[in-house]
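User: For a benchmark we're assembling, each entry needs the component sequences followed by a predicted structure for the full assembly. Here are entry 17's components. Please fill in the structure.
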Amino acid sequence: MLIKQISVFLENKSGRLNEVSQILGEAGINISAFSVADTSEFGILRLIVSDPDKASNVLHERGFTVRESGVVGLSCPNQAGALARALKILSRNEISIEYLYAFSMGTSASVIIKPNDIDRCIEVLQKNKLELIKASDLYKI
Amino acid sequence: MIWNEKIECATRDEMKAIQSERLIETVKRIYHNVAYYRDKMQQAGLTPFDIKGVEDLHKLPFTTKSDLRDNYPFGLFTVPMSEIVRLHASSGTTGKPTVVGYTRKDINMWSEVVTRSLCMAGIHKNDIVQIAYGYGLFTGGLGIHYGTENLGASVIPISGGNTQKQIQLMQDFNSSVLCCTPSYALYISDVLNEAGIDPETLNLRVGIFGAEPWSEAMRKEIERKLKLRAIDIYGLSEIVGPGVSCECEYQQGMHVHEDHFVPEIIDPVTLEPVAEGEVGELVFSTITKEGIPLLRYRTRDLTRLIYDKCSCGRTLVRMEKCKGRSDDMLIIRGVNVFPSQIETVLLEMSETEPHYLLIVERENTLDTLSLMVEVQEQFFSDEVRVLQDLRKRITHKLESTLGLTVDVKLVEPKTIERTAGKAKRVIDKRNI
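Assistant: Structure for entry 17:
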């Protein structure tokens, strides 16, 4: 249930994001989801891709600083209150969220969560019958 | 006025006789009190009897900053601590500071050379001297202070910083002499300008500037902006502090107080003395110091010596403004900075040494330091907080190690140019 996310360090310079997407495109790697965390000086690009290991390698070879980390993919109905319900469960179980990003499509919504304790997070979500996205499914989106 | 005419205007033969007698004594004292240097002499097959005069100086082994580090803190002192009345320290190459100790006689000698220096600059007992060098472990403040009191002029021991107050006292106390780093002098002139204060309304007439490298162009600028005569003073704590040499009113090189500090110029590669008048690395032997006498101490400053009699009447040998360094030390706001200190800090943060680039700039006349650190995998995290925390830790650690604020910037790998496989560590953009 653990999903591999790759993070890339970016300076705030124009064209860097474009370069990353181009490198991945040329390597035949598809991006399922991504988010950029930025500060005034630098940014961290986080990506869910079809082949995280390969993506890591090609970006590293091209001189980028890359890191793989585990995140959780949560699937919930695309309706009001669904996310709140899931977050309430995490909060009640004292799992804090470092960051999250989400997208919705049709009848369902997907949320990528980086919790402080990934194993407990998965356990709690499963126990509460919340739908988790399988890594293999997410890489294919 | 010439403070000590007998010495300052001595003939070359007279000076050599003084130097020889004092050198012989110093070599004996060091040989019998400092095992570390005795070993060095023995390895070179020397005993004190081989040093019969100043012409034998070149036979002696060198002393370097790393010798001081290896004997930290008091290993090179030749007297017991009961004889030491003062300690000063400056930053060393790796973490540990360079420590020097003074006996009462050393402090008196230091006062004497500073007094002579002030007289060279045309300062007299009616002057009001504002000392804006830092007081404390740094030798600048206290060194000038004692020499000024010895001269009989009035001291304003204001120390560095607090520019508004500096200006207020210049106005209210009629300061006629300003002592500080040249970059701080320029900064004061900018603040005066912003406050709409005409320097002509101040009583300043002489500036004693040193502790960092500065150019002739900078001298002209300071003289124009502060309406005073800008005098260059040279010194390093290992030798004594400020007052090792100083310019006279003719501003044609700094007179070395060579009856206490014997200068030599060597080729920094072959370590052999260069021909008279040639540029090389300046080496000093202290021949009267008791606390920590040093023989053939390599300053790493590049300059040349002028033995001609000066227009002021003094015969003391003159050294030109330093032309650079034979190592990678930087002097920023009077503080010695070595790239190795930055390496040490960065190595503490990760297992492998990251690539970095130190950029020194002069912004609004004050030197600033910024450090670019390449974020490689060992540093990187997917969380912003972790990276910001890393940046903060590097900043704090550098500040406590160097005593200077450094603007740390995290950059992508390969941002910093590699030359022949090796990274360039320092870019000095100051026009000195």
